[in-house]
Amino acid sequence: MWTYVDRHKEDAMLLVDAPYTAEVLHAHSGQLHPIYRPLAVYLTRLKYAPKLDQILVPKSRSASVSSQSEWMFHLLVSFAGESFTPKFAIQNSFLSFEDYAAYQAIAYLPGPHSWVLMQWREFYSMDMPLFVPHKEDLLAHSRFWHINLWNNLKSVPEENWMQKKEFWSRRHPYRPFPPQDQWSGEYVRASMYWSQSLEYLTWPFVQQFRGVPDLLHKAKSLNFAEISQHMSAWNQAAREKAKEFWISALPGLLTLDEVNAQEGSRRARESKQSAVGMAVLLFRAAREDSR
């Protein structure tokens, strides 16, 4: 990805999905790109519609994270007891978005399996109440993607993937990819530093919990319908902002003849046309949602 980004001779229209992603790309290429939140417009008409008196614990396909989810779920159920409501359920098979929408909330336990997770944005765009662990627990339980990536890169020459200090050190004391030794103080300091930009901890109305007892207390006491309404208002404001952006940007994108005269390449025309198609789709979805 960063090899493509670093091609200065080719025109590209690039929006980055998250602050952390932007810094990762900058650490490789020295280029900063604008950040644009994924709105998951394909879920515009699919919203939170709880029918089950249950909170779902999603399970990753990763074997290590999956096993953690299993034993943490059993611990949670043991603490809750048989009479506790709402009940907790663990995801044991494929679920459609309609299936997810039927739960009261979604609890990431022990935590999301990665620092950037599209599934989490999709749930948020559906106005689903979300539980995530507090920062310290989140970092302790979401480190497996670092471990797996380090293992996968063992046989790859470091110059092919290592982020460049000449770039990231201009803006930050630590590189975006934490050190290999997960038990070191450097790993903890770097992870705590970069957690400041994670969506789990910065987006509004996300319910953070400190351990199983706190999760049970909040599951019992929170008004999920009210939380969903707040999320819906924030999502709607984001879509309105997107609509305003594309209304102002589309006229420039649609002047293909002028752009083609300047660029004079088939690849550039196709790239622009693809961008226009994406922009039109987003604009239409935002317009329909606002009606």
Could you explain how this protein is built, in words?
This protein is α/β, with parallel strands linked by helices. It has 2 domains: 39-161 and 179-224, Rossmann fold (3-Layer(aba) Sandwich), CATH 3.40.50; 248-290. Helices cover 53% and strands 6% of the residues. The chain has 14 helices and 5 strands. It has a 5-stranded parallel sheet. Helix 12 (224-253) packs antiparallel against helix 14 (266-289) and helix 13 runs antiparallel to helix 14 (266-289). The two termini are 38 Å apart. The mean pLDDT is 82.
Secondary-structure blueprint:
Blueprint: H1 2-5, H2 19-29, E1 54-57, H3 63-80, E2 87-90, H4 97-101, E3 105-107, H5 118-125, E4 130-133, H6 135-141, H7 144-152, H8 165-168, H9 185-194, H10 199-202, E5 207-209, H11 211-221, H12 224-253, H13 256-263, H14 266-289
Helix pairs in contact: 12-14, 13-14
Task: Provide keyphrases for this structure.
Rossmann fold, 2 domains, 5 strands, single chain, alpha/beta
Short description:
The chain is built from 14 helices and five strands.
